[in-house]
Amino acid sequence: MAARDENIQVPHKTPIGKADASEVRDLNPHEDVFAFFRAELKEIRESIKNLHEQNSLNSELAEMKETMNSFFDILGMRKGKAPQDLNRKVYLHLLGNGFSQSSSCRIVEAMNQAASWPAQSSEADALKLAEKHIIGSLPALPETGAETRIKMFIGPTGVGKTTTLAKLAARYSIMKKMNVGLITTDNYRIAAAEQLETYAKIMGLRMEKASTRETFEKALRVLADKDIILVDTPGRARPDDGYLNKIEETISDQRIEKNLLINATGSEDHLDNIVTGYSRFRIDHLIVTKIDESRRFGRLYDVLSSTKKPVTYLTCGQNVPQDIEEVTPARMADLMLRCAAH
Description:
Blueprint: H1 21-26, H2 31-77, H3 84-96, H4 101-112, H5 123-137, E1 150-154, H6 161-175, E2 180-184, H7 190-203, E3 206-209, H8 213-222, E4 228-232, H9 241-251, E5 257-263, H10 268-277, E6 285-289, H11 299-307, E7 311-315, E8 324-326, H12 329-338
Parallel strand pairs: 1-4, 1-5, 2-3, 2-4, 5-6, 6-7
Antiparallel strand pairs: 7-8
Helix pairs in contact: 2-3, 2-4, 3-4, 3-5, 4-5, 5-12, 6-7, 10-11
């Protein structure tokens, strides 16, 4: 039983019918205390609600201000050489193809720095200048250079590593007449290893399995006579340290070309997270997969600009070996601007 509060004064007993309103309230001395706290709580809740609404409003205003500033920039407020109407059309074209607002502004500004503009410039003329800037800003493969003998393919689950590796194995062995060996380090998904093994048997290629540094080095010795060795790796939706450490330990001390696969359908945030997550491997090249499943590719521009790594291949289906193509900055620019997946 709770201790009695000696500070509470119990009123004298009065017949209920004869008591006035104040005396009736006095019969429950705790009621006023609870009512006070309820009122305080309600006021606090209202304050929090107003604060949230104010923060939301401030965020919306900041976003509107940024948008207005961007439009002022591209509509000629910086006195560019291009007609204002073309600035607007190119800017909206870029946004419509998935380019970010900041990238669209930079491209339009670069377009405005063109040495000369024809008197009767068209939107097509402006887009050609924008495309020229995009091509020049994308990283490209060196024109000359020896092919790296060992190539590793990394990336998140479901991006298409095993199928892409099989397509490249077919290109090297059938089209380039090279002696190809395969290694899988994916011991997490039995189906992936079995799939690659099936491809290897169909193409008559030697495949080895490795899960540790020792078994990986042994596989390399077994495949010592091969011109090209392609290495498949396990995937993770979100690359954690344990997973990355495992791959790093397995392939350490080897001169390996690291190819990161990214999905063309991924959002800008998703692509940024993938690139950041795998950055510890010092990626050499990017491969963009599943371009047949997307119609807007401008979001790839920021990824390529930030990584400064060239895209070497695009994939567009499950068919081995045909659904893959070598790519150049010109092809990437065309893909981003024309929305043409093929």
